[in-house]
Amino acid sequence: MINYKYFLISDVFNYCRGRRLIKLNQEEGDIAYISSTKFNNGVDNYITPPSYMTIYKNCITIANSGSVGYAFYHDYEFVASDHVTVLWLKDKELNKKIAMYLITLLKALKENYFFNREMSDKRMQKDYIKLPINEDGSIAWNYIEFYIDSIITQIKWNKKDTKINKEIVNIENTKDYPITEIFKVRGVRGKINQQQLKGGEYIYITTSNKNFGFKGFHNEYSEKGNVFTVDSATDGKCFYQKDKFIGSDHVEILEVKDKYKKYINKYTVVYLQTLLNYYLDKYEYSRKRAQVRIKKEYINLPIDKNDNIDWEMMERYIKSLSYSEFL
Q: Is the separation of the CB atoms in 148 and 100 below 8 Å?
């Protein structure tokens, strides 16, 4: 099984900000001019760049303003505007397969930014992306290429939609269970704030509704993992945490009760997490998903012919979905 690790953007990439060149001063040419647009792979024009602009190739660009956070790969020559950061790998030559993988992760960061909170280089270098690693802790670039290859070979053009086999899932055969029947609901056993982070091997989970709540590393943990975390400060988002971690204030814990723990795997986790996030429209900043409210929630689960929770069906259902083998 492949392992993963969070890496700072600045540990993975070299990067450089583009240079300003207003439309009035652009001369027609054959070098792509990359701006902060989200359209046309970021290409705004084709120009003959002035001598002060660096011509790049085989790099990723990410928009700092405008369409903040949109990232694109360019295997051709280009120059970049001052609203764009150009990135290339520190320890490996970039290629299309690796770029496809990395762009997906980089685009996910755009949720942390918006019109009046631009993606400056200073802010971006503090962001993390989660990458597969080799046994020595180095980034598993070969695995990334293999992973993208495996997806490409699965793509079937003009694939017709298929209905879920009723033998796999019977949506009528379900039952509402109190959350407290399935989970122990509690707060984190230990909590710290961002300023107390000391670095280390254990992840730090906050009330962020992005990136599984991850915000850094600490040298101690308070939770052993294999639990769901819930943000009780903002919109109530729920994430599964596989590994040991320490949390911030307002992170609530949903721990599967002992009698059900044997049924927890990556497939049933996906099923449960989807349901736990189904009713988020009930919560907002002024109506938080606090413990007292969580304990009053219900979760709709499939049942077998004996009226017991059908954990096997959950697993079969997730396995029946496209690309479930990549979970």
A: yes
Two tokens, residue 167: 């033998």
pLDDT tens digits along 41-52 = 999 999 999 999
DSSP class of residue 275 equals H
Nearest Cα to Cα of residue 97 among 138, 137, 152: 152
Q: What angle do CA 121, 111, 82 make, to 5 degrees?
A: 30
User: Cα 128–133–188 angle (5° rounding)?
Assistant: 55
Mean model confidence pLDDT for the chain: 89
Strand order from edge to edge, sheet including 245-247: 214-218, 202-205, 245-247
The answer to whether the beta carbons of residues 264 and 207 sit under 8 Å apart is no
How many domains, the chain? 2
Same domain, 97 and 182: no
Q: Which residues of 274-293 are buried (b: 16+ CB within 10 A; e: fewer)?
A: eebbeeeeebeeeebbeeeb
Residues 306, 311, 312, 318: what is their CA dihedral angle, to the nearest 10 degrees?
A: 140
Q: Which amino acid belongs to residue 308?
A: N
137 sits in the region (left: phi over 0; alpha: psi -120 to 50; else beta) called left
Structural contact between residues 60 and 124, judged by C-beta atoms closer than 8 angstroms: no
Q: Give residue 160's pLDDT band: very low, low, confident or very high (50, 70, 90).
A: very low
Give the range of the structural domain holding residue 13, as residue numbers without chain letter. 3-144
* 121 and 236 fall within a common domain: no
* CATH number of the domain within which 195 lies: 3.90.220.20
pLDDT in tens, 53-67: 999 999 999 998 878
